[in-house]
Amino acid sequence: MDVLDLARWQFGITTVYHFIFVPLTIGLSPLVAIMQTFWYVTGDERWLRLTKFFGKLLLINFAIGVATGIVQEFQFGMAWSEYSRFVGDVFGAPLAMEALAAFFVESTFLGLWIFGWDRLPKKIHLACIWAVAIATNLSAFFILAANSWMQHPVGTVLNPETGRAEMKDIGAVLTNPTVLAAFPHTITAAFLTAGTFVAGIAAWWMVRLVRSGRPEAVETARTVYRPAIILGLVTMLAAGVGVAVSGDAQAKLMFDQQPAKMAAAEGLCDTTSGAPFSILAIGDLSNDCENVRHLVEIPGVTSFLATGDFGATVRGVNELQDDYAEWVGDWEDQNGGRTFDEDQRFYPDLGITYWSFRLMIGFGVGSAALSLAALWLLRRRGSVTGKAWFGRLGIAALATPFLASAFGWIFTEMGRQPWVVTPNPNPSGVDGVWLMTARGVSTVTGTGTIWTSLIGFTLLYGVLAVAWYRLMHRYAVEGVAPSEKDPSPDARASRGPDGPDRSSDDAPLSFAY
Amino acid sequence: MELTTVWFVLIAVLWTGYLVLEGFDFGVGMLLAVLPRRGASAQDRERERRLMINTIGPVWDGNEVWLLTAGGATFAAFPEWYATLFSGFYLPLFLILVALIVRVVAFEWRGKIDDDRWRAWADRALVFGSWVPSVLWGVAFANIVRGVELDADHQYVGGFWALLNPFALLGGAVTTLLFLTHGAIFLALKSDGDIRRRAGDLAARLSIVTLLVAGAWAVWAQLAYSGTAWTWAAVALAALALVGVVVATRARREGAAFVASAVAIVGAVVLIFGSLFPDVMPALDPANSLTVDNASSTDYTLTVMTWVAVVLTPLVLLYQGWTYWVFRKRLTVEHIPAATGLTFRAVATDRGAPGA
């Protein structure tokens, strides 16, 4: 493999891995904040127990998300330095903004939340977890703004002298229609992930306790885990609707901005009116249109998804290939000569794009559908269930939104190929602001170097994945504590100066590593 | 002042924040292998390690963001510098990344499992994760001060082994010693009891070595590689501060010693960045050097980023400062609660069921 392949594999592995943990963090931090808010408002200790239980799972997950995120910021310069030179004037700004506006808040207030249980007044401590929750979501916005610019460069011109993209309008970059569609889609998917996580684990616990048959265990299932399940399910349902609506909006936008990505996602080779939606297609790995055979199709649906009209014409891969070759070729002819080969392919890998698109939708819809089934089962007030299949389904459901997110990103990024900065043959496109992935890779970095880091990261990530799984599993199996004491200074004060828990300089910390 | 100069200074400020803040938590991490009392029972040593970790527990994560901000700011303000530096210093940066990754998860995961082998692994990760970046940041910065082999396209072509020259290795020793001293002082400042005394002793002994080694490196840097005379002021500031550290640690004035070691790190950063300017990455052939002008973003981008920095940086300083205030109390081993982590083996009970 050459440097380009290695760098792409490394970026793919580290990014997909990073994004296993990120959606859970983005969605779970607000859910934990909501649980703590319920505790704060109602004073009901059950919500404190749930806050601490899911809070621990959040922290285990948060650590690995942060750790793997550091790699992402450095990797652009390390393995993709030519990309960095070309886009730094535009792309660096949202990254720096993320660090200044969101990441500082996240890590500082997370430290305050972890260690502040017995140091901060209840209200301030609650505000800390909300600060974390809002900042993780804000973080996502800046990163998506950067990514969306790669999918659809705006607010930028090409400087012919420096040969790089230069920013003209930060407002346009931050209000790129692409990010306005991608942000709700990613955030709702993160809430779907966290909702499934909370509901799935709580459902497993509810079934387990009800099946034990002991009255006090059933009572715990009803009073502690059932509310958690309902919170999770409602989140899943709302998020599921949001994912679908925002996904539809995003798809329509992509038919316009990245038609080759969407044509490949449908395996649509020839331009078609009333294009059908393909359920199953086969082809060999030559990535050639001649070999694609559609087995099951629903007529008109792709046209409808693209434009809202069942009869509309959707352009296929073959026509788009010619369009791009002509459009980019003409521009390059007028600006210093062609830089790509005659046989350059301008559409992404058909098999990967087609299947990642379907797996994303399938796992996402599957996850959201489960919430409806579970809400139906628990529709009566206060009802709990001891059905073994329900607990097992809760556990099986945990994986679905993670898989949907992973395939979603594989689709988004692989569908962008062969470009790292996508050209846009529309009026909204910017002339000359595009870059082939092959041109973005570092030129001074040898294969041995990238092999070293690729193997190093992969092995390290493998070990960490095992440790992460064992920790999450162990803490999930431990369940909610039988009771939690209010550790806040307010509670100590209300117990009076002679109370046994009076704040004392010699008392052990309520939380320590 | 030109915006490029503003951003050169701002990046120096971000590095100062990073090295001053994460410097002490690196130091505490490095000392984890050294400071817990030898000959004490395994249980006592574990309590001391936990005490050490908890002195930096609430703040290390926020400290690390200074690095991410410095990286992001370099990308946004000086993309050529970012691209050349990160691709050229690929392997050292890879090692730093591995170190930072294992360090982050070790902090957060260490106490989650109550098991000696688990904690031993986490301690190895913390020690490795603190030593490696401490050494390598010094090596990297010393190489930049010294000048590296850049070609006409500003690409680093010197290879990996050229980075391991005597001046750079001495630079690595300087940052390591500075952070060790800084960390020992911080520990003495934040703890009480026996460990405070030992950390103070260690800081007093380390400070002399640090003064000598850092002083030698600074003079070497100034004589051989600095383009200006005014950076002698930075050398003098750092040297005075380090003398202050020696004096204050002997007198057990922990607060003053901490301020002095922070000032010494500030002096080192001012020396490094001051000797570079107007280059950001001098080349062995000066014609190929990356400067604040040929490495920078456009005026527009710099203007936007300046506004963002002007609005947000004071806020960051405010709430990070507040964190230090909230957790200002000294810790003793008595403050450390018994381990609250679980074992890997779940006990077969139905928790959540009172009386079960």
UniProtKB/TrEMBL annotation, chain A:
Residues 481-513 are annotated as: Disordered. Keywords: Cell membrane, Electron transport, Heme, Iron, Membrane, Metal-binding, Transmembrane, Transmembrane helix, Transport. It comes from the Bacteria. It is found in: Cell membrane. InterPro entries: Cyt-d_ubiquinol_oxidase_su_1. The chain crosses the membrane at residues 20-41, 53-71, 91-115, 127-150, 187-207, 228-247, 355-378, 390-411, 450-469. Coiled coil: none annotated. Belongs to the cytochrome ubiquinol oxidase subunit 1 family. This is Cytochrome ubiquinol oxidase subunit I.
TrEMBL record, chain B:
InterPro entries: Cyt-d_oxidase_su2 (IPR003317). The keyword Acyltransferase does not apply. Its main location: membrane. The chain crosses the membrane at residues 6-35, 84-106, 126-147, 167-190, 202-223, 229-249, 256-277, 304-327. It is found in: Cell membrane. It holds the Pfam family Cyt_bd_oxida_II. Keywords: Cell membrane, Electron transport, Heme, Iron, Membrane, Metal-binding, Transmembrane, Transmembrane helix, Transport. It comes from the Bacteria. It is a multi-pass membrane protein. Signal peptide: none annotated. PANTHER family: CYTOCHROME BD-I UBIQUINOL OXIDASE SUBUNIT 2 (PTHR43141:SF5), CYTOCHROME BD2 SUBUNIT II (PTHR43141). Belongs to the cytochrome ubiquinol oxidase subunit 2 family. This is Cytochrome d ubiquinol oxidase subunit II.
